[in-house]
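Student: I would love a firmer grasp of how sequence relates to backbone shape in proteins. Thank you; the sequence and its tokens follow:
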Amino acid sequence: MPESMTPPETDKVDATNVEFNAEIAKDLKSHAEACRRVRKSLLHDWKRNVDLRIGKAVPFSGGGATEDEVQSEINPDWALTKTKTANLYSQVPAVQLTHENKQYAAAVGPFSKALNYELGEKRANIGVPMEEVLNDVVNAAGVGAIVVGYAVRSETVDMPVEEIFQSTAGPIPTKDIPPEQLKQLVQAGLLHMQPIENTLDSKIFGHRISPADLLWPSEFIGSNFDDGDWIGYDHRCSWAEAKNEFKLKDEDKDRITSGTEISSQSDLRSEPETTGTSDAKKVKYSTMYYWRYKVDPDEKSFKAIWKLVYVEGMEKPVIHEAWKGQKYDEQTRTYIGSHKFPVRVLTLTYITDNPIPPSDSAAGRPQVNDMRRSRSQMFMQRERSMPIRWADSNRIDTEILANLQRGVFQGFIPTNGDGSRSIGEVARASYPSEDLTFDQQTKTDLMESWQIGPNQLGTTQAGRRTAGEANITQQNFATRIGQERGRVASFFLGVVEIIAGYMALYSDFPSLSEEERQAMQQAWNSKQILHDLVFKIRPDSAIMLDTQSRIDRIQNFINISAKSGYVNVEPLIREMAELSGIDPTDVLIKPEPPKPELPNISYRFSSKDDLINPLVMALLVKSGQAPSQDELEAAKKILEAGAVPPAPPPMPAPEGGGNPPLGQPAGPEGAPGALPPAPGAPPGPVPGQDMAPDWSLANKVAKRSRDISGGD
């Protein structure tokens, strides 16, 4: 789709030297034609890679019959491509942002949130072109590309030049004046109107460019296409889109759309569907982006990018202007937005002085051809060595022999004498065993070419079944695939940087709350600060993990960091519930806020006097451990109840008078009866008083009869 660039605030490009710009456009157009000639020479091999991946038979290199007439298709490219692309990229990773200046830290979070939202399915949906490009790189062409653009739909409206109208009641913003009164003020000459572009809808998009449409400098010999002089692509769109984007006229429609039917060179399909295309003709156009300083000696910036668009059927370019993905800031004297081409190119391999390397399918094509040839020879052997029996016509009855030739008999056959001399089997030529060995070696060579073995394909390999060997193989694979993952991550972040540039210039950040938007705007001016941002992703975040592996990672992180106070574990627990197949809205609740932790103070009371010490009581009160008045009253009652035993009922006095028995009350006061102490004996025990306070509990326990009576 064409890239529309009509934002509300656009720069007026200084293009006074029309002849000079026309010369630049003509020169770039000739370079594009040279690239198309180079690209045409590659299309045959690219199409063949696609056809072989889907198992479509192609003729032998020597011509003649197609391969599927003599063999069963063998198609290793299918599994190898799916495995390789899944190991390189399988999900859109979360982008993390940092900034060298710490004072902008408050703005990084909201901008990062808005950027990741823009990359999602509801906005740019960047995961779709990423997957498509990887299939182009791994299987079809060895090269893939994505164009990132910003499209708007707007209308021209008249708005007051003045922002404030000075009325008798005071200043009034002109945007708050009703349309009827605004019209009257304009007619009276109190306000003046000017036409401006009012944006109705906009979007940031990322689309895959077919390798058959990519344009690059034919003389370029590097691997970083931003180092080239220019980059571009051919494309097609409907007349309605082209008319709106390129400001075309209706009288040019027939001339522009004539001869735009789909041809076999338009894409990498061997037989494109052409039914009904004559009624839906397309407009062909070519878009190119180039470094201005490469062609204009008066350009003072190394970051200035210009855009050039040619429509087939028109001699002059329909667009030749400064690219709207960046804006020159007079205050900082630099370009704000993106400093890279909006066409991002991905390759996984660099062949010296060849910017377009072969794909993995093309690199392994000799081994695949050997395997296909070996399989073909096996089927020819089977076809020409069908089991054939012989029969002795002198020993077999004529009628029975006729039935044998018709294949009727499969049971007992009567013969004259020994049947082994009457019927037998014609000897068949055995297939050479070395051919099977070559076939196995060819498979090994193919796996080395792709650097994908049975372990990565999810199968086992004969002869290698130990865990140690499997780990070594996986480690070597991780080393090799890590390099290519780095190239994919760099390509992805290049796409992200272009999207972030468009956001800084034109986005209203719909995913942010008002508080987040204000925090970001107060911390920095997004129109001036973007070029200092550093974009990064976690190295393995582009690879989708299985459910249990993801749960294990989250669980380990929670166990380590949950109690640190720096982590909000609610999103992690919610994700774990979702991965476990549980609806988090049914099971998750807000936890109660934790009680304030009490100070850790230890006490040791050596005597009851410590409890009446003012300092000790003050510490108890400060820590909230001092008893309340009600608790003290309850404690007193418990102590009173436990310290005084209940009085036994009075016993009647014995008949005839005398003293009551020992231990019985003697009178109404309830004092226990006791014998008078002997002369010179120590005084008896006093109720409620410990007579031996220095004794331990063991000393006070009577263990023998002598401890009581003093016996021998």
